[in-house]
Amino acid sequence: MEAAPASRKQLTHDRILDTAARVLREGGFAGVGVADIMKRAGLTHGGFYAHFPSRDALLAEALDRAGQDSQARLQRSLAASDAGDGGRFRALVESYLADRHLKSAESGCPVAALASELPRQSEAVRATGAARIGSLTAAVQAALATGHTAETAGIVAAQLVGSLQIARTLGDNARGRRHLAASRRFLLEQFDHPPRREKSR
Question: At residue 80, what are phi and psi to the nearest 5 degrees?
Fold first, then answer.
């Protein structure tokens, strides 16, 4: 059974969300102003409250939309790896820490782009951020070799996010790319295999 076509209101809602998600990655939470978002979406400021009760509600939904888009791209990379011989964890690391993400935070993971700002946001936005971190950790857990724990997946997720943040701070240059390359190499050496069992004493 085919899904019903989206209503005009839903299409407008999605246009606002897509615009806000892009601006959120570009300029952080402070860069998302209601008037500017509506103007960029080709809509009038007055129509905003027909779609969102507040700016914080827009921020929470935009963060979730950005996370879903990023996760969909990551899943496509993992699906492509299933047809090759590189392995899912390698595909995840190489996709997340790809050099192309140095140029702009606009297309990468919103957790890496916005994590340092999340503690200062509203409860609703922080809750959405926590959910996106949970989704990233789950993707890492699914890609890791059998035997690694959820705690390990959380540590790897943190290393992915932190490595990308530091590389972006260094810049889209040789230093930034060297940092990403070293991070990719370290993660693959440490985790691209089943965990070692401790020898019994």
Answer: -65, -35
145 C-beta neighbours (distance < 10 Å), count: 13
Domain span including residue 135: 63-191
What are the tokens at 55? Answer: 């700016």
User: Side chain identity at 137, as an amino acid letter?
Assistant: T
Which residues touch 107 (CB under 8 Å, ≥6 apart)?
25, 73, 100, 101
CA 165 – CA 77 distance, rounded (Å): 21
The Cβ of residue 154 has, within 10 Å, a number of other Cβ atoms equal to: 16
Is there a domain that residue 8 lies in?
no
Is the per-residue pLDDT at 26 higher than 90?
no
In the chain, the number of structural domains is: 1
- Asked if 97 and 160 count as a contact pair (C-beta separation under 8 A), the reply is yes
Q: What is the CATH number of the domain that holds 123?
A: 1.10.357.10
Tokens of 174: 């040789």
Whether 46 is covered by a domain: the verdict is no
What is the C-alpha separation between 191 and 160, in angstroms, rounded? Answer: 12
Count other Cβ atoms within 10 Å, centred on residue 124.
Answer: 15
pLDDT band at residue 1 using 50, 70 and 90 as cut-offs: very low
C-alpha dihedral, 69 to 70 to 76 to 77, nearest 10°: 170
